[in-house]
Amino acid sequence: MDLLQWPAMLVTLLAAWLVASTRPWRRLVGFWTFLASNVMWVAWGWHAGAYALIALQVGLAVLNIRGAVKNNDDTHTK
Question: DSSP labels for 30-53?
Answer without folding.
Answer: HHHHHHHHHHHHHHHHHHHT-HHH
